Amino acid sequence: MKAYRVHEFGGPEVIRAEQIERPAPEADEVLVKVHAAGVGPWDGWIRSGHSALPQPLPLTLGSDICGVVEAVGENVRSFKAGDAVYGVTNPRFIGAYADYAIASATMIALKPKTIDDIEAASIPVIAVTAKQALFDQAGLKQGNSVLIHGAAGNVGAYAVQLAHKAGIRVIATGSAGDVDEIKSLGADQVIDHRASRFEEQVFEVDAVIDLVGGETQTRSFAVLKKGGKLVSAVSKPDQELASKHGVTAAFFLVAVSTAELNEIAAMVDEGFLKTNVGDVLPLSDAIAAHEMLEGTRARNKGKIILNVLSD
Length: 311
Prior knowledge:
Blueprint: E1 2-6, E2 16-19, E3 29-39, H1 41-48, E4 59-60, E5 64-72, E6 84-88, E7 100-104, E8 108-110, H2 117-121, H3 124-137, E9 145-148, H4 154-165, E10 169-174, H5 179-185, E11 189-192, E12 205-210, H6 214-220, E13 224-232, H7 239-244, E14 248-251, H8 258-269, E15 277-282, H9 286-294, E16 303-307
Parallel strand pairs: 9-10, 9-12, 10-11, 12-13, 13-14, 15-16
Antiparallel strand pairs: 1-2, 1-4, 3-5, 3-7, 3-16, 5-6, 6-8
């Protein structure tokens, strides 16, 4: 089978197409015939050698997948050959840019019925990240308030929708051109981050979901209620600053599970969640997809997808 792999860490140019042996699933795994694979920032971190997890080389890139189960391991009872599934390959977030991928049976779920493979491949990591940031990490509930930075981004768009659905007051930051779109997702207030400073308009929210980092993260401590929480999916917050403001702050890595994916699939099928697919490229354009991640090639907004079946 064809797979897009790296033998050394570096820029997009280190990605190479190879013919490798099709893997067989172990006891708690499934073999998926990949129809589409998502491309996310973490793929770039892994490729460049900046993963938060150990990544022995060589490796096949990619984690978000949608496809059809080809075979199951001996302990797998929740899936069978022929099932249409979506999800994440494994805790190392590798293996998806290929004709076939091995996935942990606990990190995939049946594909939402109302969308196609391309849309389904755009969902797993970013939607689960948004869900866990809001509810598992920040502990938000109906009637709470949240400030979401980067609300027009891939994770941010899901965070706005999920928070709105849960009855949480949503304040969001974004660019002027994204204001209407963010409002349409359910934000109660949208602040153009280039036109004004958010801390001049936001006071005492229960939580901040930081999807930007840097100075934006640092300035966010000032808008939290005492006892509030800052949750970042991009960088570790300053604990001294958190203590100074009487709040807590955490960086977290997403933990994708079948249960989470089932909940998200149900919300998609019920019409509560809107997907956001950007550029769709053939698998053979994996290098170009990573150039888009790096900002050296123009791209549209939304999740980049590799259409494996188009090659």
